[in-house]
Amino acid sequence: MQKLFLAKASDIPPGRGKAFFSEGKKLFVVNVGSAFKAYINYCPHQGGSMRYDGARLQCSWHGAQFDAHTGRSTRGPAAEGSVLEAIDIAREGDDLYWFPKEKPRPLWSDDF
User: Fold this and answer.
1) Which end of the chain is more exposed for a tag (fewer CB within 10 A), N or C?
2) Contact by Cβ (8 Å): 71, 39
3) pLDDT tens-place string over residues 44-76
């Protein structure tokens, strides 16, 4: 599994979030009580970017709100079962890394 450097953990203090662009993906990382959570920075309602107020993630376009720990919607236009797409991250010392999801291989292939 590929591991890519994302940021210094010390650059995202508790109660804060930060947007990143890496490998063609818009990401958003939040520091929730010294635990780091990461999501694709894309509201499932209409694609707005996220902001973090220290308690929840909120769509900058329509105000839909999401639990920062789980990514599940809690209020607003996307509230019926919507979930932000989580990104796997790891902390090693002060470094944060993320793991791009592997693209699935087609069920058929000429490569045998």
Assistant:
1) C
2) yes
3) 887 889 999 888 999 998 888 999 999 999 987
